[in-house]
Request: fold
Amino acid sequence: MSAIRVALAEDQAMILGALAALLETEADLTVCARARNGREALAAVASARPDVLVTDIEMPEMTGLTLAAEVRASHPDTQVIILTTFARPGYLRRALEAGAKGYLLKDRPAAELAAAVRRVRRGERVIDPELAAEAWASDPDPLTERERQILWRAGEGRSGSEIAVELSLSEGTVRNYLSEAISKLGAANRIEAARIARQKGWL
Amino acid sequence: MSAIRVALAEDQAMILGALAALLETEADLTVCARARNGREALAAVASARPDVLVTDIEMPEMTGLTLAAEVRASHPDTQVIILTTFARPGYLRRALEAGAKGYLLKDRPAAELAAAVRRVRRGERVIDPELAAEAWASDPDPLTERERQILWRAGEGRSGSEIAVELSLSEGTVRNYLSEAISKLGAANRIEAARIARQKGWL
DNA sequence: GCGGCGCCATGACAACTGTCATCCCGCCCC
DNA sequence: GGGGCGGGATGACAGTTGTCATGGCGCCGC
Reply:
């Protein structure tokens, strides 16, 4: 029986090395490639042809979500597992749409990573159980595109008038959208609204 | 020659396990305790008496910075290494003030962790070289403790009056502190001020 | 073809926020 | 013992923000 070949993509070098060490402790797994950003990872997948790619989401050059879509398109034999800090239903949905077979949180016990690799290799899907439940129960993104644009800028500290200029709107309109977003999110003000939206993965 | 005993504190279980696997690959190191928050870590240090404690900063219950100070006070034989994502001069300064002997970024190659543990064990200091240079050049934290408390709450989206009640101050006083903080940070409003302070590691 | 929805706008009002001047207290340091 | 500094406060003023009512435009679906 030959070992399962795993590629790893993670932007923090020390975490990358540590995850590799973790996987190498399993006799039936071997880390055949490592990458520190999405572009590197795509190249690594092309040359090393791993059975499974384990990737972070937030990376320079190319996010793990885009990477997952690219890998599915050009190397369908490589299964993708997203490994991330973020328990955001929005991310999970986008990951599944991008063809990822696994979505695991860095919060979970270390043993689950190897287990997930084996299961995905067998063709199963592995979704973090808590997150899967939450994603089903959780409300979909209530924000319109405009509201998102404006709320994001407000969350960065820009004032109503600055946002108005930036988006070629009137100040009043900006206030209207913010007011709408605040009430949709049940927040008390723009700052809290931005915080909530960020946390839910809607920004 | 007996192995160097290391305790690990990190809130993300998978990273905790991975770092442990990484350290265990070194023949002269052994992980004698693991903790997922500051309080657990303090208890673990008390019972396991490690030579070195490697800890994250942002953890529930007690931050790594507070933890470092507590360990120095109650277990001076245990050396502390801060291992974090954040290249913030403010964090570094506070870490050193808290008695940490090492400050390492998760960005660095995995091999540096074991090297740092050995050096700290020998009584040396290990500071991330890039960060050390930057810290020297960078401006010191201009915020007073009150300003920090208030700005932090404002950054969470709380209103002036809520903050006033929470800290038993008058609304006007809260506004005064915020105004001071905003001008010290060269921001246009409380939101931007909070963003800047966070980014610099002053919050 | 009408209703609903996203998008954009105006105007008005109340509430919140940012600034400034000016004050009191206590502490530490020279 | 006077000055500086952090903490705390008041009052006044202008500017920003949040809410509401109301209207117009275009697109989609029934």
